[in-house]
Amino acid sequence: MKHGAAGQPVQVALSADGALAVRNAGPMVAPEVMAQLAQPFTRGATPAEGSGLGLAIARAIAAGSGGRLALSSPAPGQADGFEARFTPGQSNQ
């Protein structure tokens, strides 16, 4: 794992309506960083390597499928941590 608290599990949950949430523990991400985090080539404070494209790509894939990617810190219901939640768009079937 590149981000989050070492030794803490990453929680992955899929709801009945198809929402996928990935959550981990760690320090809260500042609001000004959260506002930019899904922009291409933007990275939070981390020792991990990377180009800052992961969340931008994930958001583009979500939008292309008619869905939405929401980022939260602190993680909902927590005092710290981070959550990325994909919510699918409405199906026309």
Features:
single chain, 93 residues, alpha+beta, four-stranded antiparallel β-sheet, 2 helices, globular
Tell me about this structure.
It contains two helices and four strands, in the order ββααββ. The chain has a four-stranded antiparallel β-sheet with strand order 1-2-4-3. The termini are far apart. The longest helix has 11 residues, at 54-64. It has 93 residues and is of the alpha+beta class.
Succession of helices and strands: EEHHEE
- Measured by DSSP, the beta-strand proportion falls in 15-25%
Number of strands: 4
Q: What structural category do the secondary elements indicate? A: alpha+beta
Terminal residue distance: 37 Å
The biggest sheet, with number of strands, parallel, antiparallel or mixed sense and barrel status, is: 4 strands, antiparallel
Would you identify the regions where 5 or more consecutive residues have pLDDT less than 50? Answer: none
- Give the overall pLDDT as a whole number: 86
CA radius of gyration:
14 Å
Shape: globular
* Strand line-up in the sheet with most strands: 1-2-4-3
**Count of DSSP-assigned helices:** 2
The helix content, as a percent range, equals 10-25%
